[in-house]
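The records we work with from here on pair a chain with its fold. Taken together, the tokens spell out the fold as the letters spell out the chain. To see the layout at work, look at the sequence and tokens printed below.
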Amino acid sequence: MSSNMGVNNYMNMFVQPQNGDTSLSKRESSSSDANDRKRKKKSRWGGSDLEKTFIPGMPTVLPHNLTKEQEEAYILQLQIEEIGRKLRTGELGIPSNPEERSPSPEPIYSSDGKRMNTREYRTRKKLEEERHRLIQRMATINPTFKPPADYKPPVIRVSDKVMIPQDEHPDINFVGLLIGPRGNTLKSMEKETGAKIIIRGKGSVKEGKVARKDGQPLPGEDEPLHAYVTGNNPEYVQKAVNKIKEIIKQGVEVPEGQNDLRRMQLRELALLNGTLRENDGPRCSNCGAADHKSWMVN
């Protein structure tokens, strides 16, 4: 429509009144003024109707010899740049007339009474999600593509649960095995796997101890005892889940006196408390001697 309007305006410049027809001249003048006003009128995107989008380094006319992938990459680049411009300028296309807007969801407020799901927030989030999708697709087509400087990929959180069979084995201290002295076993697993591990559920907090300062229950407190694993990579989460399951399996199948992890935790605890004796190192699980391992005995 904009290009047609430009052609009409261009042709009107060469139309002259014939036979002294002043009424025709007035109509043409009026039409020209109206077209000038339309041409000068700013669109909601901040430019005139005749203004074209220009991206440095990209041709304004699509070459005819491009492959399908190159055509898609060109279009993706235009879409990414257009969304980025909207986010930078704040021209989100929200109608100024409330009657032209879609219905809003129920408001959600933060603890300080500030509304969180405003129309602008929802529009920006939708644009950011669309730009993220386009950038991901662009990266598969063109591995050398570099996202815009203001682009930040969304943080994806992956979670999983590992149930702890405390009710089936009440004599085994699974929480102690997983957490370790002063939480060092848990910290070591988190560092090794890259995932965050939280022990929660019934029995995760000592009886009579308030979990939160406001007295409110912790998430998952009413659930059975479990390890809650989170991370931004599914591989990290799965690695942590496997480590937790391995510790639980050892706790069930290996007697406490022969559990290498448990013995190392007791030694570490004695070292932290300053009560470790030199002959308190790991012993053979068969004979109890400290000068060899159990696997060294024929």
Observations:
- The first strand starts at residue 158 and ends at 163.
